[in-house]
Write a structure and sequence with these properties.
The structure is a single chain. With about 375 residues, this protein is an alpha/beta fold. It folds into two domains: about 30-70, no CATH class; about 80-350, Rossmann fold, CATH 3.40.50. The chain has 19 helices and five strands. It has helices at about 1-20, 25-55, 60-70, 90-105, 125-135, 170-180, 190-195, 200, 205-210, 225-230, 240-255, 265-275, 275-280, 280-285, 290-295, 310-315, 320-340, 355, 365-370, and strands at about 80-85, 110, 140-145, 160-165, 255-260. The chain has a five-stranded parallel sheet with strand order 2-3-1-4-5. Helix 11 packs parallel to helix 17 (about 320-340). The radius of gyration is 26 Å and the shape is globular. It binds 2-acetamido-2-deoxy-beta-D-glucopyranose (4 copies).
């Protein structure tokens, strides 16, 4: 946008200066000489470029980069490639159910990976996965619990990213109890999900876990949301400023929308506005009685909130996560304002939303992260 308007104004300036200078016969020759020099310079640049091309056995990097700049929206436009690298326990189960309905309605390819416990990949695995994703017939939406993949780094067309997060402590609590006691499927479910878990661990008091700094309730495991946005770099998993800043930057550069579960309806509404190919009508599906019936699979059982003291300790340990979450909320509210949505924050039943949005899929996530 910016460069476009810049070049426009440059063009306008050139135009007006040409018009302003009165035409004199003498100036014609000078003009032609300059033109000639310019022409030769261009030609020699071209020749050197060509030579360079051949010596290198391929196009020079700068040409490739220029091509990327000039012609990048060829394949993924207007928006037939979307990746939703869903964060665990942030309502993605609900969104995937909605996507199944939407995919049929709007005829896009929904590919929902059933790998739930591998969010970071080796370089080879990254390349394999990105290649797999890029050959899905368009338009497509690919979704998996996986940390951000940098397609451009491997010269593959970068898709549009979307995601949803929630309050970090609520996410943590939801996961803590889900891992132990499952959800609506009843008491047997957790035995299937986490069969190796000893009763000591299953019935571990969450306050003890936090206050006695068990690994599950300490860093780096509490550093959970940021790596999804930072990427596959090892430093992305080290709690700290570097990963935080990179995650923020990356959200601005590569994510079309990061919604918040606390305002799920507005998130859906924004998705509808921003990606109508995929999401138009999503809110009415979400609110329909039929969906409510399927969507009501939820509610982690036996949730017992930690003491205030434990919560404060948790909050301290998750300060980067909160910094990121607050940043996302700000961005989200800015976008809502820009698009002209009234905030639905004050509506009374919004508060309960997160508790109902439980996920069945990623109970074992925490087992995998060492
Ligand atoms: C992920 O879970 C599957 C079973 O659901 C298991 O076979 C596999 O080893 C796990 N992967 C990792 C990286 O732990
Ligand atoms: C890519 O797709 C192939 C064939 O469908 C599959 O066997 C392979 O596991 C996939 N690789 C990744 C990283 O998803
Ligand atoms: C992605 O890769 C490109 C090229 O290597 C790099 O400039 C960019 O910073 C990377 N972005 C992220 C978020 O890692
Ligand atoms: C969800 O299920 C619970 C228990 O099965 C039931 O009490 C509740 O009314 C249901 N809610 C909706 C919106 O259907």
């Amino acid at each position: 946008m910016k460069s476009h308007s810049n070049s426009n104004s440059v063009r306008r300036k050139l135009h007006s200066s040409v018009q302003a200078s009165p035409w004199r016969p003498g100036s014609l020759l000078r003009f032609s000489l300059r033109d000639y020099a310019f022409c030769m310079a261009t030609l020699s640049v071209f020749c050197f470029g060509s030579l360079f091309y051949q010596l290198n056995g391929g196009p020079p990097k700068i040409l490739l980069e220029m091509r990327q700049y000039l012609a990048s929206p060829q394949r993924c436009s207007p928006s037939p490639c979307v990746v939703y690298n869903r964060v665990g326990k942030c309502g993605s189960r609900t969104v995937v159910l909605l996507l199944r309905i939407l995919a049929e309605k709007h005829r896009f390819n929904l590919v929902s990976s059933d790998i739930h416990n591998k969010t970071r990949l080796t370089e080879q695995e990254q390349v394999d996965l990105m290649k797999n994703i890029s050959v899905i017939p368009q338009p497509f939406l690919y979704t998996r619990h996986v940390h951000f993949l940098n397609f451009t780094r491997f010269r593959i067309e970068q898709p549009v990213y979307i995601n949803i997060i929630r309050d970090p402590i609520n996410r943590f609590l939801s996961n803590y109890f889900f891992r132990r006691f499952g959800d609506w499927r009843g008491e047997q479910n957790h035995l299937i999900r986490t069969p190796g878990m000893k009763d000591d661990e299953r019935y571990l008091d969450i306050n003890v876990c936090i206050l006695e700094s068990y690994p599950e309730c300490s860093n780096p495991r509490l550093f959970y949301i940021i790596p999804y946005f930072c990427g596959q770099h090892p430093q992305c998993r080290e709690p700290g400023l570097w990963a935080l800043e990179r995650a923020k930057q990356n959200v601005l550069e590569n994510f079309l929308l990061v919604g918040v579960l606390e305002e799920l309806e507005d998130t859906l509404l924004l998705l509808e506005r921003l990606l109508p190919h995929y999401f138009s009508g999503v809110l009415s599906i979400y609110k329909s009685p039929d969906y409510r019936k399927i969507g009501n699979l939820t509610g982690t059982v036996r949730k017992q909130p930690p003491t205030l003291e434990a919560l404060q300790v948790l909050y301290q340990r998750m300060k980067y996560e909160y910094d990121f979450y607050n940043f996302i909320r700000e961005q989200f509210h800015l976008l809502k304002k820009k698009i002209g949505l009234r905030s639905a924050e004050e509506e009374p039943d919004q508060e309960e939303e997160p508790d109902q949005e439980e996920e069945l899929e990623d109970a074992s996530l925490w087992l995998v992260h060492p």
